[in-house]
Amino acid sequence: MKQLLLHKRFRQLTLLIALLGLFWSCKSSKIDKTEAKAQDMAALQILLEQDDYYVNIEVAYPFVTAATQRVANALLLRNTGNNANRIDVRGDGNFIKIQNDSISGYLPFFGERRNNSGAYGGRNSAIQFKEALEDLSKHIHTEKGKLELKFSVDQTEGTEHYQILMDIFPNKKVSVNITPTYKTNMRYSGKLTEADKSI
Questions:
Q1: Tens digit of pLDDT for each residue in 30-53?
Q2: What are the tens digits of pLDDT across the range 67-91?
Q3: Could you state, in order of their start, the residue ranges of all structural domains in the chain?
Q4: Is there a contact between 152 and 162 (Cβ–Cβ < 8 Å)?
Q5: Is the distance from CB of 182 to CB of 162 less than 8 angstroms?
Q6: What is the pLDDT at residue 55?
Q7: Is-contact 62 184, C-beta < 8 A?
Q8: Angle at Cα 168 formed by Cα 104 and Cα 85, nearest 5°?
Q9: Which InterPro entries match (predicted)?
C-alpha cells in the first residue's frame, strides 16, 4: 500500500514537472517572438530613415497570359530551369537605385502591351528610368513587418508611365510591383545591397 502511494505521488510529481517545463518553454517562445519583432521594427525604422536604396533584382515574375506562356516556352526558357511565371535574372545587372532625390532603374520586361496606344519606346523593351524623384512616400506596415515605398516614374524613351510599390523587409529582401500604363504588370524580387557607384 505504501509503495502504491509512493508510486502515485511520483507520477503526480513527474506530471507537475512536465507541465512546468511546458509553460516555461511557451513563455520563452513568446519572449523570443516579442524580441524578434522589436528587432525587426528597429531595422525597419533604420531603413525608413535612409535616403539611399539600391535593389539588386534577382527574379522576374511576369503577368502570364496564354500568348506570353507560348512565347516563353518556345523561345526563352529551354533548358534554363525557368518557367513563364518565374525567370531568374541574377547577374544581368537589373536594379533600382534611389539616391537622395533621384531614381534610376533597369529591369527586364517579359509580357505584352495592353493596347496599341503610346509609342513602343525604342528597340529595348526593358523598363528603364532615370529622373528626379518627386512623389516618394514611405510607410512602415507594422502588421506585415515591412517598409513600403511608393512612387511613379516615366520610361526613359517613350510614353510609358509606371506606378511602383516596393516592399523592403527587415532581412533586406525586396519585392517590387510595377503597374505600367500600356504593358502588363510585372513583379520582381531582389535584395537591398550597397549601391553600385558606377551607375
A1: 667 888 888 999 999 999 999 999
A2: 767 766 666 555 566 777 888 899 8
A3: 1-49, 51-192
A4: yes
A5: no
A6: 97
A7: yes
A8: 80
A9: DUF4251 (IPR025347)
- pLDDT < 50 regions, the chain: 120-121
Q: Between the CA atoms of 187, 191, 194 and 199, what dihedral angle is there, to the nearest 10 degrees?
A: -30
Q: Which three cell numbers stand for residue 172?
A: 533586406
Residue with cell 536604396: 53
Could you tell me if 106 and 93 are in contact, meaning their C-beta atoms sit under 8 angstroms apart? yes
Identity (one letter) of the amino acid at 95? F
Cell of 81: 530551369
Measured distance CA(190)–CA(55) in Å, rounded: 6
Candidates 34, 74, 28, 44; CA nearest to 138 is 44
CATH architecture group of domain 51-192: Beta Barrel (2.40)
- The grid coordinates listed for 158 are 517613350
Q: Nine-digit cell at 15?
A: 506530471
